[in-house]
Amino acid sequence: METIRFVERFIVYIEDHLRENIDFAKTLDDMGVEQKSFLTIFTSLVGMTPAEYQEKRRMTEIAFEVYQGHRRLIDIIKYYGYRDLERFKTIYKRTFGISVHDTERHIKEIDLLEQLAFEVVPTTQAKYPSFRNYVESFRLIGIAQYFDANTYQSKYKYRFLKILENDGLLDELLRYNDGFMKGIFVQERAIEGEIEVFVGVASYQHTPFDETFTESMDYEIFEAKGQPSIVIEDIYQYIFRRWHFKKDINLTCDFSIELLKHTYSIDDPSTKVQVWQAVDH
């Protein structure tokens, strides 16, 4: 329950600083909160990153003000921290799918976002089957990509995977996949203000690729089948919104690991997926 309470408190923090450019990495560091852990939990609960939440809340407040028509548009957007009118219009159109000038006609149809609060709903049935396994640290060889922690979104991970697939690098990595587990591993972790996404395979061989090592941990391993970009996000929502509270287990979220046993494409809806959620002893 404390996890949800902290996310709610952080949402209040965002609301209190809605008009400011929040340095989320620094703010979390000042609070003593590990960035990757918090981003995983926040995104799973809210459905978007803190930066995305702040932007959509800003756009929502602006939409209400535009609809009420009490102030000029240029004054409204300056109040919410936007100095470039054309850039603002682009963000507004991307957020709501309409131009700002169409707001009055479509205010009841657009996807506005009010301040969020949560209600924990218990469940008696496991949505995704899982099993517990202690896994010793093992070597991954692969390719790393780094993203700014303040602006990182989970969709960047799937874009990175798609680029590697299109370039034939996933197939190349699988040639070296002689470790204890077969498939493509995706590991995320925070390193000095950045999110590292490492895509690789378990391997003992000398290769031209980078290498990293996983953590020796107890893992709750959730299994599913589906398009990875959809099913993985749904599993994390299940873990943090339901499973976590039913089991009353402490989670370790400063890194995350997924395993894709893909067929001909990582977009294939028949892809076998595992989410390895680290748990405390």
Q: Your description of this structure?
A:
The chain is α+β, with helices and mostly antiparallel strands and 281 residues long. It folds into two domains: 2-106, Arc Repressor Mutant, subunit A; 130-279, Regulatory factor, effector binding domain (Multidrug-efflux Transporter 1 Regulator Bmrr, Chain A, Alpha-Beta Barrel), CATH 3.20.80.10. The chain is 41% helix and 22% strand. It has ten helices and eight strands. It has helices spanning 2-16, 24-30, 35-46, 50-68, 73-79, 85-96, 103-106, 154-166, 169-174, 228-247, and strands at 130-135, 139-148, 184-191, 194-202, 210-213, 217-225, 255-261, 272-279. Strands 1-6-8-7-3-4-2-5 form an eight-stranded antiparallel β-sheet. The longest helix has 20 residues, at 228-247. The protein starts with a helix and ends with a strand. 32% of the residues are buried. It holds the Pfam family HTH_18. This is HTH-type transcriptional activator RhaS. One of its GO terms (molecular function) is sequence-specific DNA binding. Residues 8-106 form the HTH araC/xylS-type domain. Keywords: DNA-binding.
